[in-house]
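Incident log, entry 3
Record: YafY family transcriptional regulator (306 residues)
Problem: checksum mismatch between cached and fresh output.
Input:
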Amino acid sequence: MKLDRLLTMTMILINRKKVKAQELAELFDVSIRTIYRDVDTLSKAGIPVISYQGANGGISLIEGYRVDKQVLTEDELTSISIALKSVLTSYQDPHAEAVLEKITGIAAERKTSLDYIFIDYSPWGSNALLKEKITKVKQAIETSSCLIFTYSKGYGKQTERMIEPHILVEKGRSWYVYGFCHLREAFRLFKVSRMKDIQLSEEKFIRKEINLSEQPWDKEWHEPKNTISLKLSFSPGSRLLMEESFGVEFIKEEQSIVEIDIPEDEWLYGFILSFGNKVEVLEPLHIREIIKKRIIDVMKIYTENI
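Fresh output:
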């Protein structure tokens, strides 16, 4: 957006003595002519911008012009820094890096430390491929380009998809893209780690209105048609584990029972199996049978050569 570009340009000029128009054009992915039009807009708004011609030329503010850097408190600077550093562990964003550089400069002037909290969203061990995927999805969202990819579902089934990506979602320590799927003709949530051969299509799309405060991916996830009523029996010594996993409101203490409506998918099967012998599925029966079969299949792997 032009307003975002003008604000960012103003901050860059405040923090640097002189910036070349070419550098700004590359940063904002616009033409040099657009940058000079922005300079004219800033001048008309009362910000004293000067353009210098020649080999050592560039764009700067009149010497001595400053804005009050106290507009952000130390706590606010720290919060923004933590958010930017955390996001940059998952994907590349030159704009976020530029903002972080400016915030670090302001903090240095105030002798404020920004390094006492660090949130790393990346998985254990370097996962450059995942970071590359997320960066590519973000690029598609920013340019309103459709995404083409192969998507892996349960049991190794793969489908070719084209989607209109709207939102990158980090949830449950995994990254997803929420977009309109051309194959299903509806919005779907796709796990980025299951996407491969990702390409940006030349086909563009018009963004649809989405109310983020409603978290539409959660609403669709928990629709009655997508959920089952799960009933589990757990060993008495596992109560604390059950509380942490499901919440106290879904536990019947006197019976050591968990009852909850929950979406059924591959994640649920693995989740139940992760409790080992501490949990038994009572209902529904088809989930009980699925878990039983998977336990038998695992036993075969480990016993057939004994």
